[in-house]
Amino acid sequence: MTRTNADLGRLVLRFALGACILFHGVAKLMGGIDPIKQAVTANGLPSFVAYGVYFGEVVAPVLLIIGWYTRASASLTAINMVFAIYLVHRADLFKLAASGGYALELQALYLFVAIALALMGPGRYSIDER
């Protein structure tokens, strides 16, 4: 694999992850985060922790897309996904979906792509590399 192909692959991963997570963030900007506050406090955490979702689902995805502070943004996205899985999806952690796939395959995909980007870095087509 050439460096160009590897860098293009990182660009595709950054854009895909950033865009998909950003849709969730926009929904929270428009609809609020009251359900997240309830989930956070129901798990014994202070309600201000819920505001972290704005960083994990709005700020970090935008930074991923443009390739600025990519490793930190990808790490923040991974942390956001760990919180989402714990707070909302932990009952499905060891379940299969009706179609036979893993019940949390989307969340797992987001989590592991974010971890991969945090490890690999942004690639040449990013602000970080300029």
Please describe what this structure looks like.
It is a single chain. With 130 residues, the protein is mostly helical. The chain has one domain. It is built from 5 helices and no strands. Helix 4 (70-89) runs antiparallel to helix 5 (105-120).
Question: Features of this protein?
Answer:
globular, mainly alpha, 130 residues
Summarize the structure.
The protein has helices spanning 3-31, 34-42, 52-66, 70-89, 105-120. The chain is mainly α.
How are the SSEs ordered, and which strands pair?
Blueprint lengths: L2 H29 L2 H9 L9 H15 L3 H20 L15 H16 L10
Helix pairs in contact: 1-3, 1-5, 3-4, 4-5
Can you write the helix and strand succession as a string? Answer: HHHHH
What structural category do the secondary elements indicate?
mainly alpha
- Estimate the helix proportion, in percent: 55-70%
Strand content: under 5%
Unreliable parts? none
Number of helices: 5
Number of E-type strands: 0
Which term fits the overall shape? globular
Give a quick account of the main beta sheet: strands, pairing sense, barrel closure: none
Rg (C-alpha, Å): 16 Å
- N-end to C-end Cα span: 22 Å
Integer average pLDDT: 96
Our count of domains comes out at: 1
